[in-house]
Amino acid sequence: MGRQWGPAMRVAEQVGCLVNASRAGQPEAGSWSCSGVILSRSQGLVLCHGGIFTPFLRAGSGALTAADAVFLPGDSCGDDLRLRVQWSPTAASPAGRAERGGPGLCTPQCAGPPAGPRGRPMEPPYPAELLLLLSCPAFRAHFARLFGREPAEQWRFASAAPDEDVSEDEGEDQLRALGWFALLRVKHDSEEEADELGTAVAVAPLGAVPKGAPLLVCGSPFGSFCPDIFLNTLSRGVLSNAAGPLLLTDARCLPGTEGGGVFAMRPAGALVALVAAPLCWKAHEWVGLTLLCAAAPLLRAAGAALDLLCPDTGSLAALLPPEVGAPWGLPLRNPGPPWAAAAVLVECGTVWGSGVVMAPRLVVTCRHVAPREMARVLVRHTAPKSAKIWGHVVFATQETSPYDIAVVSLEEELEDIHIPLPTEHFHEGEAVSVVGFGVFGQACGPSVTSGILSAVVQVADTPVMLQTTCAVHGGSSGGPLFSNCSGDLLGIVASNARDNNTGATYPHLNFSIPITVLQPALQRYSQTGDTGGLRDLDHAAEPVRVVWRLQRPRAEAPQSKL
């Protein structure tokens, strides 16, 4: 996997940068910083997040929420704005060539003068000017559709945890600037300095990268704090979901990475998106997903804005990076892994969750999603455009059973859907993915989150529980767990972990029922209609019940020393 990521990593590190904004002559006023992407080497064009500019807007942050606000010219900010852009050395620069030939490991400059080999060389920050602030109207529209229906206190997009002290004005500014970005031009003193900006970047067209596709995020956590350690830090994940240009990834990002570039593994190094919000919170709980804005529509908006501005900046529109096209010789509409389409939305009355199709007219979900036998259930392949298919619950485990399972028989066949192949073996540490309707539920299609199979819990040498690091949220229950390598179905998501004292959930610690527990009974039902094998799930041995209660047997519990 590391070798496959090599080209994308090189591009990401060459075009990643750090942007710092401050007030002229007012060091006590502090500074604001974010990550950015170098778009054009020759002209020094840089795209970064717009949130750091809200303190400088002459009309205040309210200008960003005006109904017709698509872009704002550079003079929308006060004359006291001072911008600096910094990047790491590349092989094309003198410092980069020196670093490549330097011996030993690098020592960060913030650690003080190195005693041995010299510290890692850093390019000095270059002054820059703000050309314009811009937003993507489609991103803002989808954001309002997906997040606007929830109560205001449910969702929070900020650089601090919900319990940290953030003023009401600061929180409002962050929300208003969420979908805004800034186009800058670095000021060069010579052509040699222009050459040091690194290679140009190509842009992936909107929709070219499918759900479940691997992504690489490059940003600088904590912004301008100790950049010789944090500059251009990399994080990997997958494209979890998409609504037009509003994208979600499970790559883990931190404050300061706003504006950082998100790159595809294929086509190698193509810019897919920019980070809009690195931390998403819902009901005071970390969701574990990062909000992105697709790069292609954002750059199209930048080009249109530049054409409307004065002639000397209008010529810059032609210098914006191109979208990936025929010269790459690669398909632009990758359907993605077939297993990503195996999940269905299951609705039973007012309760909804996820399910997985085991046969054209057979769906497996969780008991707490469809708890009553013979209950009417509505199944959608993908929400919200697919046709409704009704079914009924033919089996649901008892509440006392450790296995939270329900089986739904459909009145019609699901057409053109991938039927997953159940696995026979499990391998701890293998890459896995969960597909489900968590976070957005009916408002969007299924999300894909990635991780590893961190534990296979066995009783009498038989797997009875799977534990993964995939981000799992409410609404994902009943969804499938797949092996990324083979595409085989590994299990059915049953729950994530919750702290009984605080009520907090941990999205990256979750549990699934191994498909090997269910497959013989499901096969028997499919062939004969006999639910006897399924009903055996209600009579699991006590050690299995102990495992799913997440408790140790009383006889093995350690004695308290207090």
What do these coordinates show?
With 562 residues, the protein is of the alpha+beta class. Helix content is 17%, strand content 32%. It is built from eleven helices and 28 strands. Strands 1-2-3-8-6-5 form a six-stranded antiparallel barrel. Strands 9-10-11-16-13-12 form a six-stranded antiparallel barrel. The chain is elongated.
Keywords:
562 residues, alpha+beta, 6-stranded antiparallel barrel, 11 helices, disordered C terminus
Distance between the termini: 49 Å
Strand order of the largest sheet: 1-2-3-8-6-5
Q: Segments where pLDDT lies below 50 for 5+ residues?
A: 91-107, 114-120, 326-332, 557-562
Q: How confident is the prediction overall: mean pLDDT?
A: 83
Computed over alpha carbons, the radius of gyration is: 26 Å
Helical segment tally? 11
Strand content: 25-35%
**How many strands in all?**
28
Please describe the biggest sheet, giving its number of strands, its sense, and whether it closes into a barrel.
6 strands, antiparallel, barrel
Q: Can you give the helix content as a percent range? A: 10-25%
Structural class of the helix and strand makeup? alpha+beta
Q: Rough shape?
A: elongated
Summarize this entry quickly:
By secondary structure, the chain is an alpha+beta fold. It contains eleven helices and 28 strands.
